Amino acid sequence: MRPSRTLALLLITAATCIATAAAQPPAKPKYGPWGVDYATMDTSIKPGDDFFGFAEGTWLKTYPIPADKSSAGYNSELPDLSEREVRGLVEAAAKQPHNDPMVQQIVDFYTAWMDEAGIEARGTKPLQPWLARIASVSTRAQLNNLMAEPGYASPIDIGVAPDDKDPSHYTINAGQARLGLPTRDYYLLPGAKYETIRKQYRDYIVRILTLAGIGDAPAKADRIVALETKLSQDQWTPERRRDPQATYNPMSRAELTRLAPEFDWPATLDHAGLGAMPTVVVRETTAVAAAGKRVGDTPIDTWKDWITFRFVSDHAQFLPKAFDDARFDFYSHKMRDVPQQSDRWKRGIRLINGSLGEAVGQLYVKDHWTPETDKLASELIEDLRAAYADKINHAAWMDAPTRKEALAKLASFDPRIGHPKTYIDYSAMIVDRADPLANAMNAGIFEWKLDLSRMTKPVDRDLWYMTPQEVNAYYDPTMNQVTFPAAILQPPFFDAAADPAVNYGETGATIGHEMGHGFDDEGRQYDAQGRLRDWWTKQSADLYTAHAQNLIKQFDAYEPIPGVHIKGQLTLGENLGDLGGLEAAYAAYRRYVSRHGEPPVIDGYTGDQRFFLAYAQSWQGKQREGALRAQLLSNPHSPDAYRVNGIVRNIDAWYAAFGVKPGDKLYLAPADRVHVW
Fold it and tell me: How many domains does the chain have?
């Protein structure tokens, strides 16, 4: 649910500009004569057989994925631009005298990262104090405390977040933690592909431990893999973790002790600074209980080996090149099929965006944000709110009590645009100009202390979970907020000069998608105040669920890699967002047409055809097989091609626009089409 789409707000402003285009004639569109790129299309493909191929077929066949990336397409172009813009700001600041401590922190963090010669010269010396902390552990109580400290791995994640049932206050969450491989499937699925990955992972562990000067690496690697395999067997699947009711289990400390007595909860929570909070919300209950058993029955030395490996691996990029190369070789090259490491400056920009993000964001906003953009985006959001109100009012499957609650939720919807009202103050964060590993640890410690400082106060609704320079957006169900950072409000996706049909197909569908998350299978379980509460009548809920089950079945049938299907349940929220968003956007476009008259045919394409073509081209993208496999196993988003073909085949207007008939590969009988709204 958060984040939901990499292009979300940028597209919003484009449709808004439709209303002002007549008064201020814009320049020529960036793509094609009216906003769609003819060069990417393959008109030899029948739209009803493969609409994504029709819109993007030439590009798919001819455009190479850059050597340092796992994917290509519009979704990667704008992040590249944002990184270049931030690099310019940071490197300019490094060359000019200034008296701003915040700017100095940014410069020092980036300088430490870019000092490859210094990193090589220091070798593994920066590791030693952190590994010594692990080595000092001799009891299970000490082990539990170590697992609760920032920067060290644990089989149980503990964090601070708004309470799902009382989102005005914070609570502690405890749940299953990530392992060394991306998901449990990589440990458990049969077949040569997964067996090869598991062997390569074991070899990687040996390599990392050996580089760190740790003896008996092969035997330790075997024990680490065995431990993680046991942990994975008890972890919840990504699909199950999407259920907000199943993952909301508040417990007292006594109840926690009964659930997982091997994990000394009172002492560990006190050590972590969480002693003031009497209740913990346990997410994956059985996984937490099983992880506790592993803490109790696995030798302390094995846990220390695991934490040591994880610490070195997780921080390999801050160490000499051999460590960095080893991590890239396994996680990017072998796992995701990426041939080449990204330029160091690019990775440095991503690091400061992650560690000093809102400090960098302040610099970014000064150069790359205007109040006019804010105004235009806000106007379009209100247009989409009105479109959704109309859809809710006319949804035949929604009864009156449920409709009343849905409209109240829509009315309380809170959009945030551009940048936070108040930025994080990083002055307490220590930045060392000569130790990038210490900087990474200090950033984690700073973030944890920041969470602790907020814990006993009312939830601050003005906090952002993304930075202004991030090309992304998200819906937060506990706040009923959609947030759109500044970086997404620029070309190639926002184009005020484009045809209205294009702006509605791209911008309208995307903002509709984001707003629709408030009513997807997860978001619909939160009310107008962001509380996890069942506000649906049984009749409406049953009809909604029947629609959703049909969409699950459709996506379960898709097989992007032989033997690997899309998980319809895992991707349901995003698929519902895509379908509902496109339905709402098309309705909004037809409202526009009713006011301005039926648009002319342009280059042989009607307005409706241009609308759907724009939607298809907004999802331009392709991936390497390893990256695609990882997405299919764990990511709630369907691959780009299926966010087009899997969605339009449910839209009646698409059939009419392109004359899709029985016998076409994407054709679905009317009774088999899924309609959210």
Answer: 2
